[in-house]
Design a protein that fits this description.
With 253 residues, the chain is mostly beta strands. Helix content is 12%, strand content 33%. The chain has a domain of 109 residues: Ribosomal protein L25, C-terminal domain (RNA Polymerase Alpha Subunit, Chain A, domain 2), CATH 2.170.120. The radius of gyration is 21 Å and the shape is elongated.
């Protein structure tokens, strides 16, 4: 569950449009808070604190935001990064009611026996392909889990697989992803290689059955502003040691 409270202090932002580049030079990250159809609040926060928050919260852990005018409980909707410098450039928050059910994508990870670092199938030389890395769920913000694990020790032989229906879902959490959706499946390496060769190097799991910027965009529900720098939108969570350029997305400041 989202038991650990994440709190950040943000201040109202007067600087908009292209001028926000000066904020970043001063160690501030511009952000916006969408508040249930009310006028969006433009804010800014310390770069280090904002990056730490993104790494801890992702898009599924509720955040307590203290501002000059009002306090919010919110989820991060988007985080944008400079694709060249790999620096956090903008965050979009969605305010939520604590008793309101919200949708979120929860990371899925394998769980091994205490002494193991891989599944029995991998230890036997087979290949385990991951087919689902996040689970779409709906729950009250304070009921959202930070992580959902599956028992990878069940993956032993070719054809063994884990589906969404095999997951242990916390009480109060509604699963939106199809229950039949595969999460991880065991394959024979030679079968995958043959399928890959037959497909010209573009084989997908299951082919072996035959052969075997943020800136320059607009906020949702917000007003239109000038561009704040093109090519800065991407949204993958970076590692602790480096900020990786995420997938491209659009968010308006």
């Amino acid at each position: 569950m989202a038991d650990d409270q994440l709190v950040i202090e943000l201040h109202e932002r007067k600087v908009l449009g292209k001028k926000v580049k000066h904020l970043r030079s001063d160690g501030q990250v511009p952000a916006v808070i969408h508040d249930h159809g009310k006028p969006s609040l433009h804010v800014q926060g310390d770069t280090v604190a904002m990056l730490k928050l993104w790494r801890s919260a992702g898009k599924h852990h509720p955040v307590e935001i203290n501002t000059d005018k009002k306090n919010f409980t919110a989820l991060i909707k988007e985080a944008s990064f400079d694709p060249k410098k790999h620096l956090l450039t903008h965050i979009v928050f969605n305010a939520v009611d604590k008793d309101q059910k919200v949708e979120a994508d929860i990371p899925i990870k394998p769980k091994y026996a205490e002494e193991n670092e891989s599944s029995p199938a991998e230890r036997a030389g087979f290949i385990v392909l991951t087919q689902l890395e996040t689970l779409s769920v709906k729950a009250q913000a304070d009921k959202l889990p930070d992580l959902i694990e599956y028992d990878a020790e069940q993956l032993k032989e070719v054809g063994d697989h884990i589906t969404v229906s095999d997951l242990d879902i916390p009480e109060g959490v509604e699963v939106l992803t199809e229950l039949e959706h595969a999460i991880a499946t065991v394959y024979e390496p030679s079968a995958l290689a043959a399928a890959n060769d037959a497909a010209g190097g573009d084989a997908e799991p299951g082919d072996e059955a035959e052969v075997e910027s943020e800136e320059g965009a607009s906020e949702e529900g917000g007003e239109t502003e000038g561009k704040e720098g093109e090519g800065e939108s991407s949204d993958s969570k970076p590692s602790e040691t480096s900020q990786e350029a995420p997938k491209k997305d659009e968010a308006k400041e």
